[in-house]
Request: fold
Amino acid sequence: MGKHPEASLKVATLLKNQKGKCAHCELFFKDGDIWEVDHVIPKSKGGRDDYKNLQLLHRHCHDTKTANDESAVGVGTHERSQVIEEPDEVKVSRPVLKTSRSGDGAA
Reply:
């Protein structure tokens, strides 16, 4: 572990540090798994790009963790359920071009 021709140095280091396991579900990574590097503390909350704040997760585990992070109170930039869109002003539609019978080629 720690060296793989298809893995970046960052991913190889995280794989070695995590002993080949996903930090979220703790299952071993298998050949063909899709993984993502995750910030334990998001950068938006002051997290850094050092190895102490990085972990390797399966893509679906990363999606689950991110969703849980965003739904936690005080975490994330905003609650998605609280986003309210204001309705557009009523717009009156009217034809832009007037049709003409004389220009349609009929004789």
